[in-house]
Structure formats: C-alpha cells, structure tokens
Amino acid sequence: MDAKKQLRIKSGVVKRLNKEVQMYQKEVVDGELKVQQMKDEGKDPYDIKKMGEVVDESKAMVPDARNRLRKAVEDLDLLLEDKSSADLPEYKTAQEIRDDVSV
Length: 103
Fold this sequence. Notes:
- This protein is mostly helical.
- The chain is rod-shaped.
- It is built from three helices and no strands.
- 84% of the residues lie in helices and 0% in strands.
- Helix 1 packs parallel to helix 3 (89-100).
C-alpha cells in the first residue's frame, strides 16, 4: 500500500486511540467522584452499586485501550523508521502525532 496512505491511516489510529485512553481515564475519575457524591448525599444503595459497576467497567477498559494504543504506536514507529517518505507532509504530521503521544 502507498506509504502516504499508510502514514495517514496509522497516525489517525494513534490519534483516535490516544483520545480514547484519555476519555476512559476521565470517565473513571468522574465516576468515582459521582459515586462519592452519591454516598455523601445518602442516595439509594442500589444506585450507588450500579454507578460503581459503571466505574469498574471503565477501569477495565483503560488497560485494554492502552494496549491497543501501544500496538498502534509500534506500528506507526515502524513506518516512521522508513526515512524515504520523510519529505511527505503526511510523514511530518505522523511524526508530530507520535511526539504528542506517550505510551
């Protein structure tokens, strides 16, 4: 497949998965705050339990999303090792995306 197209696809995947990891992490923090707020307000124990289950599901998704991001970054790194496309704007964009993402 064309190097330009591969760079666009792989950098888009890394960008999307990075957002996904951040979203799950934010969801966990927000959910934990919500559970604590519900406990403080004396809400129904069933509702608190269900909200806790939602938080647990989000916590379970964080490692999975991180693993997928790690794999996508590895794939992008392999593409970026090929310096023959270094003059393409897609290469520069992919490099910027890679620099912004920490695994």
